[in-house]
Amino acid sequence: MKQRYNWFDALNAVLLTGVVIACLYPFVYMLAVSVSGAGPIAEGKVWLFPKEFNLDMYRYVFQDGRIVSGYKNTLIYVTLGTATCLLVTSLGAYSLSKRNMILNKTFLLMVVFTMFFNGGMIPTYLVVRELGLVNTIGAMILPGAVATWNLLIMVTFFRGIPQELEESGKLDGLSEMGILFRIVLPLSKPVLATIGLYYAVGIWNGFLGPLLYLRDHELYPLQLHLRNIVLAGELTSSEGPIGGEITIVENALKYAAIMVSTLPILLVYPFIQKYFVKGAMIGSVKG
Amino acid sequence: MSTYRAVPGKPQTRGTPARKAKTARYPWLRNLKRDKYLLLLFLPCLLYYLIFKYGPIFGIVIAFKNYSLFQGIWASEWVGLKYFKLFIESPDFFPVLRNTFLLGFYKLVFGFPAPILLALLINEVRNAFLKRFVQTVSYLPHFISNVIVAGIIVMFLSPTGGLVNHVLEAIGLNKITFMVEPDWFRTIYVSSDIWQHIGWGTIIYLAALSAVDPQLYEASRIDGANRWKQTLHITLPGIAPAIVIILILDIGKILEIGFEKVFLLATPVTYGKADIISTYVYRVGLTNANYSYATAIDLFTGIISFLFILSANWFSRRVSDNSLW
Known about the structure:
The structure holds two protein chains of two kinds.
Chain A: H1 7-34, H2 38-42, H3 56-63, H4 65-97, H5 104-116, H6 121-130, H7 138-141, H8 148-159, H9 163-171, H10 176-187, H11 189-205, H12 208-213, H13 222-231, H14 244-286
Helix pairs in contact in A: 1-14, 3-14, 4-8, 4-11, 4-13, 8-11, 8-14, 9-10, 11-14, 13-14
Chain B: H1 17-25, H2 27-34, H3 36-59, H4 72-75, H5 82-89, H6 93-111, H7 113-123, H8 128-139, H9 146-156, H10 163-170, H11 182-210, H12 214-222, H13 227-252, H14 259-265, H15 271-274, H16 277-287, H17 291-319
């Protein structure tokens, strides 16, 4: 059938182009400003393409020890955290997916209840404190080791694996562990990738956790340093009068700091976004 | 249905007669033995929930005690509802509750329909590549951290060198000092929230849209329905269950506004409209170490939230077939 385009298609195209621009332009603009010279920025000439291209701001950002140490910490927390979360969540989800396991209903109810009611910020902080985790790497990994939503996505996925596969494994003499590690987990690579990415992005972007549990600047992840640099304006070069030229340069420096910490996500995002979406779909089936 | 262990009696044949007799008397003991590996696999998860989820829930008792770090939870004296009274009678009570409720309400009113509209628009795109492209791009802001989003907002709205004020000046308007004017706070918060989550929110609706039977569209076309009529009578009813479920969940979250972005965007100048329960709890509880008082406030709002979701669910079950449970 021949498709006819009417006024609605035109309007729709305009609206959706607007959405695309709204989502992309801030990053394009920040990138352009961060690599432009101070003159054109001050005159407001940088809109889309960099003017007087230079990488000075990036040099400053990397000279500032905070970004480098924050990067290192964030990478450590993301790696260890994602591994821990994935292990605990997938093992737990496997058990929960077995409907006739003893106490299965009780455990599932116990897990779901925490989605609707929790202890709140202060009691959680006190628990972490009692455990002696404040100001340790442990505080970045353990309090978020299982996200209930992710756990339920995995349970749904595991329940979708045909029972015949597991039973054939059992007939061939595989133990319970053997079935999990040789049949179920290899079949679950997509969901493992999805949930792993959720956890990794969560830890990478996390702000409240480190704000509550870390005191020592040496342990600060990227986000805390970023907040101090971008929002609290604690720049190494901020001595002297505020306003005019200095503010302009400061802005470019802040944009560079933002780009440095967002670039990894922006660069890998197009390749991994299908995994994110897959997770959201499995989650939505559960409703 | 699960057919896991279709023959539960079989594996026990290895046991000695004495053990068999014992397990026969206590069936749960037999199940415990049967499931010992599954239970072992669940153990880390169980410990996590007991310590980090139910530990704090138990810790809520400090809302009813005069908790001090030195005495610990048990030794601290009971004070009953003292801290709840203190909160309700404090001058902060009404503004903080109003700010939280209004911010949540505006977020619901504007943030809830936005993804539905976008999903409907995306659904009308007939070129598959363009459709994918718009989707992919619109999900992107969801993965940017709140710190960076707040940073972008503050810098774009800055009166010195901010993009938005550049534009305002260029079209001959006055500069606005957005971040220090309390009246702008809710607008900034809600619109940036829509920017962050509109794309991601469409996923569930697009999934529901793809499940609508294409035959319905064909039949309606033969009956002479145009695209607007199709949207009204086929598409919207098709995704109604998803809409209702998301609405219930969102109503339950009205008071649970994310701490991070408000904390990052609010300044003492804008507290009059920006200070919400979670930032208040953080300031009172952790900055001033008033643990019991802060916990009481948290519990108070937790209960209200719980009531919200219960009544939303109840209402939805009465008027439609959709509910969470």
